[in-house]
Structures are given as structure tokens and as C-alpha cells.
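Inputs:
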Amino acid sequence: MRTLTTIALALGLASPAAADLKFFPERQETCVACHGENGVSEIPEVPSLAGQPDYYALLQLVEFREGNRDSPEMAATVDGMTNDDLKAAAAFVGSLPPAPAPGPGDPAQMKAGSALSAQHGCARCHGAEYRGGQQIPALRNQRADYIVKALQDYRAERRIGERAAMVEVAAELSDAEMADLAHYFAHQP
Ligand code: HEC
Ligand code: HEC
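Outputs:
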């Protein structure tokens, strides 16, 4: 079965930590133009990169370049980038400090989101504090509008991702449940 991990291994992309950052001082400005200062996004449906594991970032950058994950903005960004460029970009993402806590959420939505997360076992893969790791993204203090968009993309199978794990998860979620989950993850203390 084709997975992101096997693609990355085939491309020799297994070790972003070993990448050097030397091409990055100029390119960082491009990334933060959309993804925000320190990788904390202020643009709707543009994800924060702060706190994302470097390996997850690398796999996604490969997916954008190979056209397996659809985003005109990211396709244009990674167009012409070599494997070493992608490794350096992923190392840059991994070097960002975690996204700051944005303040308390709406109590009713926090309660509903927490219960849904427990019911669907989100922490089983994304970690007890939703910090992700390896090929699993952090959800902690990600933008709520982006989380909803990502869940809708999985449910509609516009985005398949690693072993289609999220397609199965998202198939069980209603729009209202997605909104509660996203609010909960976006407001972690
Ligand atoms: C023109 C705006 C734009 C620029 C410039 C840009 N990005 Fe993005 N990026 C996006 C958008 C929009 C998405 C979300 C795509 C989606 O909805 O699937 C994204 C997604 C990503 C993701 C996946 C995040 C996740 O949580 O899955 C990574 C990693 C990423 N970008 C890294 C970078 C890096 C590194 C740079 C600089 C080299 C960069 N981006 C430049 C707009 C941009
Ligand atoms: C079986 C493991 C597993 C479970 C359970 C799981 N996830 Fe995921 N999740 C993943 C993996 C792996 C990815 C990355 C997939 C990819 O490559 O696109 C992911 C990606 C995501 C993303 C995209 C994040 C981004 O930055 O683009 C969101 C949002 C998400 N999961 C939310 C959830 C929610 C909400 C739950 C519980 C309802 C959940 N996940 C349960 C494994 C899991």
C-alpha cells in the first residue's frame, strides 16, 4: 500500500533533522508572509506551522510537490524545490516554538469538543496534549477554521493522507461536531 512514509523513503527524505538551513534565511520570509510571524497564522484557513513536527512537515511538503495534496498556494511554493530544499523547509518548521495559548474557549464548546475527542480517540494518535510527533500533526492551538477545513477535506476525500486514517475518522463527524472539536483544539491551555 502506498503511504506518505514510503514515498518519502523512496525520495530519500527520511531525515529532515540532518538538513542544513542555509538556503532558508531568504525563503523564511516567503513562508511567514502566509503562515505568520513565528509560524502563527493570522489568515483564515492558512495553518499555523508553530509546533508541527519536522517529519510531518516534510511529508506534507512532498505531498504538495507531488500533487497528492491539493493547494495552489503550496504547489506554487514548492515548485522547483529539490529534496534538500524541502528538508531545509521542514527543519525550519520544526525549529519554530509552539503556538501560544490564545485564551479560554467557550465553555460549552470546550466541553463538547473534549467529549468528542475522548469518544473518537483523537489523543490516541495526536498525543495526550495534541502535540503530534513523527508523521502525526499537532492540533494544539492550531487555527479552528483550518482544522474544520482539514476535517472537511478528509471527509470529502479531497485529502487522503497517511494510511487514510483521517478519512475514516472524519467520515463519522458531522459539521457541528467538527466545529466543536476545532474550537477545543484551538483553545488548549
Ligand atoms: C501564498 C501563501 C503560502 C505561502 C507563501 C506558503 N504557504 Fe504553506 N500553506 C498555505 C496554505 C493555504 C496551506 C494549507 C493548504 C490546505 O488547506 O491543505 C499551507 C500548508 C502548509 C503546510 C502543511 C501544514 C499542515 O498543518 O498540514 C506546511 C508544512 C507548509 N504550508 C509549509 C510552508 C513553508 C515551509 C513555506 C515557505 C517555504 C510555505 N508553507 C509558504 C499557504 C502558503
Ligand atoms: C489512527 C490515528 C489517528 C486518529 C485516531 C486521529 N488522527 Fe488525526 N491525523 C492522523 C494522521 C496520521 C494525520 C496526518 C494525515 C495526513 O498525512 O494528511 C492526521 C491529521 C489530522 C488533521 C490535519 C492537521 C493538519 O495540520 O493538517 C486534523 C485536523 C486531525 N487529524 C484531527 C483529528 C481529530 C479531530 C481526531 C479525533 C476525532 C483525529 N484526528 C483522530 C492520525 C489520527
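Remarks. The chain has two domains: 4-94, 107-186. The two ends are 38 Å apart (CA to CA).
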